[in-house]
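thread: overnight batch results

M.L. [08:02]
morning all. the overnight job finished for the chain we discussed friday. pasting input first so we're all looking at the same thing
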Amino acid sequence: MRARSPARAKHRHRPTLCLIGLSTLLGGCVDDLDTLPDDGAIAADARDDGQLDRAPNDAAPAPDVSVDHGLDGDSGPACAPLDAAEALTPPLLIDRGPCPDGHAIRLLAPAGAALTARLLPLDDPSAGAVELWWPDDAGWLRADRIPLADDPELRWIAPAEGAVLQVHGARWRLAVDVAEPQTRPVEITGRIIGWQRAVSNEGLAEPSPFETVGARVDLLDAQNRWSDITRVAADGGFTLSGALVAGPGTVRLLSEGSALGVPIRIGPDGELPWAESIATVDGPADVDARLDPQGATAAAWFVARTAAQAFAALGPWLPIERVDPPPVRFRWRPGFSEACGSCFRPGPRPLIDLGGRLSDPDEWDRAIIVHELGHYVAAIFSRDDSGGGPHDGSPIEPAIAWSEGLATFLASWPAAPLQLDYKLAGVARLDLEAMDQPEAFGTADGTVTGRISERLVAALLWDLHDDDRDDSPDDDPLTLTADRLFAPLFDRLAGDWQDVGAPGIDLLDYLEALACDGIPPGLRAVLDGRALPHDPLCRQKSHGPLTARRLAAHRVELSAAVDGILRMGGRQQPVVAGQSVVWPMPPGVLGATLDHHGGRAVLPLSEPERPLRPIVRRAGAWELAPVERVNAERRPPAAPLRSDRPARTAASGAAASDRAAD
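M.L. [08:03]
and the structure it wrote out:
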């Protein structure tokens, strides 16, 4: 995807447009600007008054290009406006604004112009990455993400709306070359059919057609420059409107879906999704294609679509408007598995490893796919204190049992208590309704804080949820609505919940949070049925470590009950317990955060009882500098923080061993 210039290794020093994310205003960091480009590159100078001039180049003038630091859209690197655009000398404009987790700039050029952007990290490159975002009818789609350590180069044909570069991590320099080649506008329409393989008690069925609704489709020109990106519509069709330069282009489908505005990607490294070329086009065309049923893209797309459907089903109960969720990333390739098999790795950019080895492939196992997605949902939208590790259904620490049992329950919700896991040696079964193994009852020491099985957790949650239906008769007296079932999970436990019982959020904390909305009739009978010796009473304190009082329309008083760092609207200040701070409240800022020894307290200023997305500090201004190539040392990836695998019961009734490592 990233075409490299053969001359880059020995390219001469030349002035091109270069932006650095710093906290200072424009100025400094400029040299050798009297060396002029001869290929239409943009050159910039920095002056004391903050004005920018393009260096003269009468032989090959570059097309007018503007840089808009900010982006509005339903998804992608949305940036709230800071001030009106700072008008600088044309043809270059810079509009500064705060952006989440890094700096974002929109590059505008005449539609059809060919752009090449190169980035150079000024700090540790292993901590940074650059993303290219592409305009779409529904918002913005991410075209690519490249670590800064890879000396990234991005190439595209400019759309009328502009494309956006978002840089995460270290300080960086950006160089943009612009050319205006002869382009041919094209419109490509079509349909693409994928494949699925159903798992039954007998094994894995032969491939059958599977719609690619929601999948990403790219149009690339002959030099692998992005020309357009879209998604397959609800009717199964797609339309690409782009341009081609000097040769035919390629239409390809990628194993990337989306749900609730969150990208869901499946690829061999967890970043770039599997892709399959569908057609070669040299003008307007209608494409009717099918993926290779034995190819990696077909299997990966099934994973993406399965995860997207499960994620979307939970959407009405997820606090999506109060959280800035990272992409759902699956790392999978056929014939290979990490040591953990299938497992979830938490962190700022969580990663799901999906097993692909021939003896136990998981790419067709819906229960495994959604179980691992359940860990993502709990970690991002609720709270998950599990340390991870092997688990096989035996009693374990309550926090781990809660994490695994909840993920297993979500793999069955809302209507399928029977879970199947295909293995070459046979199909493993787990039935939450008929969970009658000894470990699914009681705790190891008879107390509610004792070691407990994930199977008890999953079965108990299913008992709280299920109703009496023909295919799954209910044997308990309680059926909770989804509102009652999920409110404790995505509201109280996601906020400033004070841990009770055993260390970490576990089943006891959930039951306590459930009781805070009133103890449901029949709950005691369900707990007795699982031999769980507990009477939930909602012993939770009603206040957290951060409170606020609105003094005026744009002023607020924030009080901290513990020591920490108070943040609001890009400002931050250390505070001690009992200290109050009066701050002006910038327009559009709805909440404040307090980072303290026990974690992060999040306080919305309009609804004090509900959490809000963390407030990120504002991005800095820009500084100009020429680009110089450096050799970036690659760093090994960080070790996984935790690994897990849902326990399974073999068809014969014996417990299946867990494949998780460590």
